[in-house]
Amino acid sequence: MANVTVIGAQWGDEGKGKIVDWLASRADAVVRFQGGHNAGHTLVVGETTYKLSLLPSGIVTGTLSIIGNGVVLDPWALKAEIEKLEGQGVVINDDNFAIADNCPLILPLHRDLDGLRETAAGKGKIGTTGRGIGPAYEDKVGRRAIRVCDLAHLDQVDPQIERLCAHHDALRAGFDQPPVDREGLKAELAEIADFVLQYAQPVWKRLKKVRKAGARVLFEGAQGVLLDVDHGTYPFVTSSNTVSGSASAGSGLGPSATGFVLGIVKAYTTRVGSGPFPTELDDEVGQRLGERGHEFGTVTGRQRRVGWFDAVLVRQTCAISGVTGIALTKIDVLDGFETVKICTGYRLNGKVMDYLPSHAASQAAVEPIYEEMPGWSESTAGAKSWADLPAAAIKYVQRIQELIETPVALVSTSPERDDTILVRDPFED
Q1: pLDDT at res. 43
Q2: Is the peptide bond before 235 cis (omega within 30 degrees of 0)?
Q3: By C-alpha distance, which of 214, 203, 205 is closest to 2?
């Protein structure tokens, strides 16, 4: 049995929540390996809808759920999310939930800095969620971070707090803000420490034990490859590596553990926030896609930008992340369109390109080259087999996998867990 790594192969918001939930019900452990509570998953189980932004999706079904060291953790957001889920009847304890004790913390000063920077940037805004993720990663790399394990040693944390606050005080002064309240910060950490520490442990050891027992591990990525800090549309990206290779470094398991890489791909394209978007539609078609697809962010509620499927981008992200197969979601949103379009290349300064260039100005300037296909009037919603799909929808799926040079492993036809056409079982690879 293979382990499975799930990543978003576009700009995030591809419908990973439903797919991860479906896979989590068959996994023995689910691991978040990067990002923070800036990414969201919506799970629909029976009549209940769960909105997660930090906890791994397996927690809803009682599967062992782990927050790896590659995540930056807001302990107050964690507490609020756990309490909300417990209010919905979800059981969360140290048997089914664990946090890496070397996980860096997101602190109030990180949220402050995030907001101050975005406000000051004006038209140059990157479009962050303002939740402190970027500044927390900066402090991790700058070796100033307060980590989960430090919560057990708050009597020794003063030198670390002083070093961290000295850095932030200089930045805050540039925004005419007062210095960080050291004692206030320490008091807040003391208040939350016991709640977090009940779940803290060296998760690499627990995962090693789980894997040795032959268990199936599901690695759950956040955001999407086009938001990767190295490979995405820089600087309009997130602050972590969202590619599949991060599953290893962000969990403490070796690279051979990542297994089948499943790229989640929406049947059209969306993105939230600023940055280039070659196939973006600012017309009635785009509005129709957005309304039918309910394109609003799970975490922020921000309206997503919408466009036709971009095979150039997905071919690129699949190659970079070593995607074994894709899960195509939201094909039902395309029901009723007379024609549908797929971007097959770009034109830049008269030259045809088969990839997205790295430079931001070039990314913003590319023009999409479209291939048009017949649409379908029949409904694909709720289809559970190829026989349930219209012939034109099947041709659309087949053309996508040809263009992105990656096979389709499954097709999602509604938010419901069971409305899925399984072509290839990732866990049976």
Answers
A1: 75
A2: yes
A3: 214
User: What is the model's pLDDT at position 183?
Assistant: 95
Q: How many CA atoms lie within 13 A of 305 on its CB side?
A: 15
Measure the CA–CA gap between 151 and 53, rounded to whole angstroms: 23
Q: Token pair for residue 147?
A: 């980590």
Mean pLDDT of 146-154: 98
Q: Say if residues 34 and 240 touch (Cβ distance below 8 Å).
A: yes
- State whether residue 345 is helix, strand or coil: strand
Report the candidate in 147, 54, 142 with the shortest Cα–Cα distance to residue 100: 147
Distance, CA of 412 to CA of 418 (rounded, Å) = 9
Look at the pTM and tell me if it is higher than 0.85.
yes
- Three-state DSSP state, 352: strand
- 38-65 pLDDT per residue, tens: 766 777 777 888 888 899 988 988 899 9
For residue 392, pLDDT beyond 60: yes
CB of 217 within 8 A of CB of 236? Answer: no
**Which residues are annotated as catalytic?**
13, 41
Alpha helices in 175-230 (DSSP H): 182-197, 203-212
pLDDT at 229: 96
Mind listing the pLDDT tens digit for each residue in 83-95? 999 999 999 999 9
Structure tokens belonging to residue 241: 């590596």
C-alpha of 167 from chain center: 29
Q: What is the pLDDT of residues 118-141, one digit of tens each?
A: 888 766 666 677 889 999 999 999
| Of 106 and 294, the one with more pLDDT | 106
- The helix (run of H) or strand (run of E) holding residue 404 is helix 391-404
Q: Write 228-235 long-range contacts (CB < 8 A, 24+).
A: 228/320, 231/317, 231/320, 233/11, 233/275, 233/276, 233/356, 233/360, 233/363, 234/358, 234/360, 235/126, 235/360
Cβ neighbour number for residue 395 with a 10 Å cutoff: 14
Provide the total of helices (H) and of strands (E) in the chain, helices listed first.
Answer: 12, 18
Provide the token pair at 88.
Answer: 């919905």
- Alpha-carbon distance of 334 to 328, in angstroms, equals 12
Structure tokens at 286: 């785009």
Token pair recorded at residue 2 = 């293979």
